[in-house]
Amino acid sequence: MNSKHRKTLEAIFADPVRSNIPWDDIEALLVAMGAERYEGNGSRIRFLLNGAKATFHRPHPRKETDRGAVVSVRRFIEAGGQAP
Q1: Residue 29, by phi and psi: left (phi above 0), alpha (psi -120 to 50) or beta?
Q2: For residue 83, is pLDDT > 90?
Q3: How far from chain centre, in Å, is Cα 1?
Q4: DSSP tag of 16
Q5: Residues 49-75: tens digit of each pLDDT
Q6: DSSP bridge partners of 56
Q7: What is the DSSP letter of 39?
Q8: Does the predicted model carry a pTM greater than 0.70?
Q9: Which of 67, 68, 44 is CA-nearest to residue 56?
Q10: What's the CA gap between 77 and 37, in Å, rounded?
């Protein structure tokens, strides 16, 4: 995991929850953590991390992730045993 991934991880776990994290950075972080990525229908994307499964929707038309999605990503990372 490089320094950009660490900054993204810190942003995901920051309080209050941020809503300006680019989805591409979150996706790159999950892959760097060892998550398997599977494309779904439309904007859906599935991840598998240490037995934890999650399905997310890529944000559009904006590239930033909303607060609810950041909370979901946070829970997924914790369920996968990768919390900071």
Answers
A1: alpha
A2: no
A3: 14
A4: S
A5: 999 999 999 988 889 999 999 999 999
A6: 45
A7: E
A8: yes
A9: 44
A10: 14
Residues 25/64, Cβ–Cβ less than 8 Å: no
* Fold classification of 3-79 (topology level): Metal Transport, Frataxin; Chain A (3.30.920)
- Please tell me the distance from the alpha carbon of residue 75 to that of residue 60, in angstroms, as a whole number: 22
52 CB burial (10 A radius; 0-12, 13-18, 19+) = middle
Q: For residue 30, with 0-12 CB atoms within 10 Å meaning exposed, 13-18 middle and 19 or more buried, which class applies?
A: buried
Sequence-distant (6+) residues with CB within 8 A of 10 are 84
Provide the pLDDT confidence category of residue 40 given band limits of 50, 70 and 90. confident
